[in-house]
Design a protein that fits this description.
2 domains, disordered N terminus, 4 helices, single chain, alpha+beta, twelve-stranded mixed β-sheet, 14 strands
Length: 235
């Protein structure tokens, strides 16, 4: 009888542990949901850029992020960073192993960075229509969203340079930025001029004309462009 009672107690206390092992999401009150390699068919990280100068990432250091996959699953407080060469997400799994999530599996990532100017928040999303050489797997930084969405594309590539004197060659990361405005299902490369914005905001021509009259817009100033799009979205 005592043996049966002892066995029953062991089984009862083992059930939560078994469930935790079967569940690939490890949840804690302090850190939220942590991600395992198996959760996202992730693969162990391999540094293939050891001979390249610079960084392939948007931010070189890991930041605590909220990650949403294309299938709707969401993970909070995961250390992650965006590889802008491969358009992939690198993260630290719950067991401490570095891994990465394959192309097209991440829908969005949101994180914050502490700077001298204060805390700056970032949101990157995928799934936008094809434009130029970018597809729906590419990450775009979302600067403003609504009926008009202001997006920034940041793509890195590897360039090789030779030293004419020594003959030695070196590799460096090169960065290319482009801005886009998405209205409806159409992506337009942003032109930094008044006529461009008036053409895409023609449905609100009167208030937009007044906005331009009241505000001297520097179309090279990202902050002013964000305010412009946000004003249009508020109409």
């Amino acid at each position: 009888m005592k043996k049966i009672l002892l066995l029953t107690i062991i089984v009862i206390f083992s059930l939560p542990l078994l469930r935790a092992q079967a569940n690939t999401i490890n949840t804690t009150g302090k850190f939220g949901s942590q991600i395992f390699l198996s959760d996202v068919y992730g693969r162990a990280f391999e540094n293939i850029y050891a001979d390249v100068n610079g960084s392939p990432y948007f931010l070189a250091d890991y930041k605590y992020a909220t990650i949403t996959l294309t299938d709707g699953r969401k993970y909070s407080n995961v250390k992650a960073k965006i590889n802008l060469v491969e358009q992939e997400l690198v993260f630290i799994a719950a067991n401490g192993i570095e891994g990465y999530i394959g192309k097209g599996m991440v829908a969005s990532i949101a994180f914050a960075d502490t700077t001298k100017q204060g805390i700056k928040s970032y949101v990157f999303q995928t799934g936008f229509p094809k434009v130029d050489n970018q597809t729906n797997i590419h990450f775009y930084q979302v600067l403003a969203s609504g009926k008009a969405t202001l997006l920034k594309s940041i793509v890195k590539s590897i360039g090789e340079h030779g030293n004419e004197l020594s003959g030695e060659k070196s590799k460096d990361f090169m960065e290319r930025e482009n801005s886009y405005v998405m209205i409806g299902s159409e992506m337009k490369r942003l032109k930094k001029e008044k006529d461009f914005f008036m053409s895409i905001m023609a449905d609100q021509a009167v208030p937009m004309v007044q906005y331009f009259a009241n505000n001297k817009i520097n179309f090279k100033n990202e902050e002013q462009l964000v305010k412009l799009i946000e004003y249009y979205n508020s109409l």
